[in-house]
């Protein structure tokens, strides 16, 4: 049996899967606010309680924002700042008393969708998170590609291929100008709509407003689709995936799957494009399932 844990900024989720991926239990609890020691304690408590309920000891995989540095073994690039610079793998293994596996949460999402999700059966899968941030992961022949710097798939902090409609370039949370994340996160769409209208709409409200004939909302969504197409065309030109699977809140925007592939065509260096754009199969549970699958399908 496999246990997966997804450590987010607001919640920690645990799932236990049987050998065929069937779900045995699931729990969600709030993440202790910027408290590393308390976060580890909650995770250990969740694992021990789950194993007691199941009556057996399981393998444990963890999905985290950020990644383990190849140089130091410490967490880097996490938007949960209390994790950065911490030996999370070593500390959790010490507290639990056994080996665990740990990976970036976007890699876990990609692995989940590769094993038994929207990318099942594909040789190369690019997994995309379009949420409060923008992340990505790559699987090849069913295995996650991490890279020598442990940043494979981190397309969100590449510069967007810009047009005049994308200027001036916004400042990303990482401090750089014009990152894909600064254009394609949910908050980025909300910011653009607010700048045009003065209204503070959440992303789903903007989508609904566009469908109801709001011209400002429609214009913002058209620009969003153009930017997503251009950003993904770079991925296709470099990685050439069989399928790109979208996750995160913006993956629920149904029109993306029809419009974006038409828009990326002029930017892809090929006479035809067979890459599919697909919605995730496991919703916001995909990442925690992928953490469980870190011990192999």
- Percent range for β-strand residues: 15-25%
CATH superfamily of the largest domain: ATPase, nucleotide binding domain
Shape: globular
The largest pleated sheet is described as: 5 strands, mixed
Count of individual domains: 2
Provide the residue-averaged pLDDT.
Answer: 96
Number of helices: 9
By CATH, the topology of the largest domain is Nucleotidyltransferase, domain 5
Sheet with the most strands: spatial strand order: 3-2-1-4-7
* CATH class assignment of the largest domain: Alpha Beta
How far apart the termini lie comes to 11 Å
Structure description:
The protein is α/β, with parallel strands linked by helices and 297 residues long. The chain folds into two domains: 118 residues, ATPase, nucleotide binding domain (Nucleotidyltransferase, domain 5); 160 residues, ATPase, nucleotide binding domain (Nucleotidyltransferase, domain 5), CATH 3.30.420.40. Helices cover 36% and strands 20% of the residues. It is built from nine helices and twelve strands. The protein has a five-stranded mixed beta sheet. Strand 2 and strand 3 form a beta hairpin. Helix 1 packs across helix 2, helix 3 packs across helix 9 and helix 5 runs antiparallel to helix 7. The longest helix has 25 residues. The N and C termini lie close together (11 Å). The mean pLDDT is 96.
Per-chain topology:
Blueprint: E1 2-7, E2 11-17, E3 23-30, H1 36-54, E4 59-64, E5 67-68, E6 75-76, H2 88-96, E7 101-104, H3 105-116, E8 124-130, E9 134-140, E10 143-144, H4 180-184, H5 186-197, H6 203-211, H7 215-239, E11 243-247, H8 256-264, E12 276-279, H9 286-292
Parallel strand pairs: 1-4, 4-7, 8-11, 11-12
Antiparallel strand pairs: 1-2, 2-3, 5-6, 8-9, 9-10
Helix pairs in contact: 1-2, 3-9, 5-7, 6-7, 7-8
């Amino acid at each position: 049996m496999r246990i997966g844990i997804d450590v987010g900024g607001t919640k920690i989720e645990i799932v236990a899967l049987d050998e065929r991926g069937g779900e045995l239990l699931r729990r969600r609890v709030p993440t202790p606010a910027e408290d590393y020691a308390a976060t580890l304690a909650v995770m250990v408590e969740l694992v021990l309680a789950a194993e007691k309920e199941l009556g057996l000891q399981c393998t444990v995989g963890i999905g985290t924002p950020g990644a383990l540095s190849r140089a130091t073994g410490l967490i880097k690039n996490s938007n949960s700042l209390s994790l950065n610079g911490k030996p999370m793998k070593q500390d959790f293994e010490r507290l639990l008393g056994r080996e665990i596996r740990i990976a970036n949460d976007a890699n876990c999402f990609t692995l989940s969708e590769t094993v038994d999700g929207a990318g099942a059966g594909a040789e190369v899968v690019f997994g995309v998170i379009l949420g409060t941030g923008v992340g990505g992961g790559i699987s090849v022949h069913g295995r996650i590609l991490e890279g020598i710097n442990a940043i494979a798939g981190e397309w969100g902090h590449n510069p967007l291929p810009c047009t005049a409609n994308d200027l001036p370039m916004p400042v990303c949370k990482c401090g750089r100008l014009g990152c894909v994340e600064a254009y394609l996160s949910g908050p980025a769409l909300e910011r653009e709509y607010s700048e045009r209208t003065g209204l503070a709409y959440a992303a789903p409200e903007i989508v609904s407003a566009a469908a109801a004939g709001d011209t400002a909302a429609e214009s913002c969504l058209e620009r969003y689709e153009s930017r997503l197409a251009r950003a993904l065309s770079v991925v296709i030109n470099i990685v050439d995936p069989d399928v790109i699977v979208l996750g995160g809140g913006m993956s629920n925007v149904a029109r993306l799957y029809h419009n974006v592939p038409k828009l990326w065509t002029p930017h892809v260096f090929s006479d035809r494009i067979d890459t599919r754009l697909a919605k995730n199969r496991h919703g916001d549970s995909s990442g925690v399932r992928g953490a469980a699958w870190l011990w192999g399908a």
